[in-house]
Amino acid sequence: MLLKIANSYSKAATQCLTVYVGQSGKDKVKTTNKNSIVGELVKKYSASGEFKAGLGETLMLRAAGLENFQNVMLVGIGNTKKLSEEVLRRATAYAYRALRSEKQKASMICFDSTEIFKLKLQVVGHVISEAAELTNYKYTQFLTEAKQHEVKLELVSSKAPDRKALSTGAKEGFLIAESINFSRRVSDAPSNWMTPDQLAKETKKAAKDTGLKVSVWDGAKIQKEKMGSLWGVARGSAQDPRVIIMEYNGAAKSKTPIAFVGKGLTFDTGGISIKPSAGMEAMKYDMCGGANVIGAMLAIAKLKLKVNVVAYIGAVENMPDGLAIKPGDILTARSGKTIEVTNTDAEGRLVMADLLCLASEKKPSSIFTMATLTGAIIVALGHLHTGFFTQDEKLNSKVQDAADRAGEDLWRMPLLDEHQKQMKSAYADIGNMGTPSRAAGSAQAAAFLKAFVANDVPYAHFDIASQMSDMGSYYPYHPDKGACGAMLRTFLEYARKS
Length: 498
Ligand code: BES
Ligand code: ZN
Ligand code: ZN
Known about the structure:
By secondary structure, this protein is an alpha/beta fold. The chain folds into two domains: about 5-135, 3-Layer(aba) Sandwich (Leucine Aminopeptidase, subunit E, domain 1), CATH 3.40.220; about 180-495, Aminopeptidase, CATH 3.40.630. It has helices at about 35-45, 85-100, 120-135, 160-190, 195-205, 220-225, 230-235, 290-300, 350-360, 375-380, 395-405, 415-420, 440-450, 490-495, and strands at about 5, 15-25, 30, 60-65, 70-80, 105-110, 150-155, 215, 240-250, 260-270, 310-320, 330, 340, 365-370, 385-390, 410, 430, 460-465. Strand 2 (about 15-25) and strand 3 form a beta hairpin. Helix 2 packs across helix 3. The protein starts with a strand and ends with a helix. Bound molecules: ligand BES and zinc ion (2 copies). One zinc ion (ZN) binds near residues 270 and 345.
C-alpha cells in the first residue's frame, strides 16, 4: 500500500509536503495547510500567475523552508465548491505524477485543515489511496530493466478515530485499485503470453482466498455445452478457448444473483474478414471487457459485499485459419437460434451470444455486458464516455447513480426494437451484421446481444471500446499508454447497492 496513515511524521516523508489548494471566490485560495507561510507562498504564486490552483496544476517549491520540509508540492483542486470525490481522485493523481517526475520518494499529505474537502474522512482515505495506486500502475512484465519510481504517501492525524476512518478508507481504496490493476495487467500483456488459458489461470490465482468460486470450461466442454456461436469464433485459432465462470455468494443463497458477461478476445485479427494491419496491435485490448468483469468480481469479493453475483467471461482468440468461419457461414447458439456470420470481425457478439444464453438460464435479477464491441462507439463518443445501452428505465437510473458514485463517465445511447429488426438475415434467425450495414453500428451490436437475453431479465450493455486504453490525458490516474479498467468501479458500485 502506497498510502500510510500515521500518528506522527515519519522520517521518510518529511522531505516533501503535498498541499491541496482550491480556488474560493475571486482571487482567493484555500489550502489544506494552516501554516501562514504556505498561505503567503500560494498568494504570491497565484498573483504572479505561476500557480492558479486550477485542477491539473502543480507547482514544486524547493527549499521552501517550511517547518521541517525541504520541498512543498502545491496541487490545484479548482473551485472548492465543485469538489467531489472524482476531483480529489484526479488532483491526487496529478500530484502523484508531479511527485514522481520530481523524483520524490515519499511525501506527507498535508491535512491540517480538511474543511475544503467536505468529504468524510473515510472517503478521503479511500480516494487518495485508490488514486495513488492507480497512478502508480505500469506494465513492466517484459521490460528487462523495469525502473518504476514509486512514491510513498503519508497522512498524519493525531486523533485515533480519525486515523481509523482514514485507514478503513485507505484499505478499501487499495483493494479496488488492486483489482483494477489486475484487469489492466492482463489486458496489457501481449496476446502471445495472455492466451485464453493463461487468462483463466491468472483469474484462478487472483481469486484464491477471496471466497470466489471459479470454474473453467475448455474447448471440448464448450462444444459439449452446445455453445456453437462462441466455438465458431474459436475454431480459427490454435489457442483453445476458455469460458470462465466466477461465482460470488455474499448474500443469502435464496437471493437472486446479478450476472455480468465480459468479452475476452485475447486478440482480434478480424478473422477471415481481416482487419487492416495499421494499429492492429491494439486488438490485444479486445479482452478488456472480460478483464474488467474479472476485476469487478475480485473487488466485490475482497470488499465482502452482501450480494450474489455470477460472471461469465468468454476468452477466445479470433484468427484466420483453415478452420476459421467464413462470411456466409451459419452457427447455432446454445439457445438453438441460428446466426448468419456476414462479417467474421463482428466476433465479440458471437462469443457473447452463448454466454448470454448461459447467464439467462440462471434467471438473474439483471444482466450486464461489458465489451470492446464496436469501433462505431469511438466515432460516436470519442474517448470521454463509455456507451451505455438499456431499454429498462429503472435499471437506467440505478446504473447512472452507480456511475456517478464511481466517478465514471457513461453516455446513454439509443437501443430500439427497430435496431433488432435491422439484424435480420435471409438464411438464419439473425445476422451478425445489420442492414443498412454500420448504420448506428453500436446500437445494432447491442440489439444483437439483447436477442440472446431472456425476455423478462432487465438488461444493460456497456460498450467500452471508447475507453479501453490510453486515457491518461483525460483521466490522470489512467495510464497514458495501457489498459484502463473502465467501468469496473461502476459495476462494483451497482453491486454494492443491489
Ligand atoms: N474489437 C472490435 C471493436 C473495436 C474496434 C474495439 C476498435 C476497439 C477499437 C470488434 O470486434 C469489431 O471489429 N467490430 C466491428 C464490427 C463490424 C464488423 C460490424 C467494427 O467495429 O468495425
Ligand atoms: Zn472484431
Ligand atoms: Zn473484437
